[in-house]
Design goal:
95 residues; alpha+beta; two-stranded parallel sheet; globular
């Protein structure tokens, strides 16, 4: 997953290396107006990948936060998690 001011095209040069015998699906994260909502986006991502689970996720910057949220909320969907310079954001306590 790409970061805030990026797109899936930024992964282009790395896709052959990431693929190495795997299917790679670069997705463009949705925007909600002028805001980026990482915690809501993690739910969207989970829905996109549900039929493929478990998956290996790679996320950069805010995309890393989205991937980390997905892994925390739905660990059964994530086999491996790679975070590249992820940002952090507070989460509400569960319960």
């Amino acid at each position: 997953m790409h970061g805030l001011s990026a797109s899936s095209r930024w992964w282009g040069p790395a896709l052959p290396l990431l693929a190495a015998g795997r299917d790679v699906i670069p997705l463009d994260l949705p925007r909600y107006g002028r805001r980026f909502r990482p915690h809501e986006t993690a739910g969207w991502l989970a829905d996109q990948l549900d039929h493929l689970a478990p998956v290996d996720l790679v996320g950069h910057s805010l995309g890393g936060l989205v991937c980390a949220d997905l892994a925390a909320d739905r660990p059964e969907q994530v086999r491996r998690l790679v975070l590249v310079a992820p940002v952090g954001a507070p989460r509400r306590a569960a319960g």
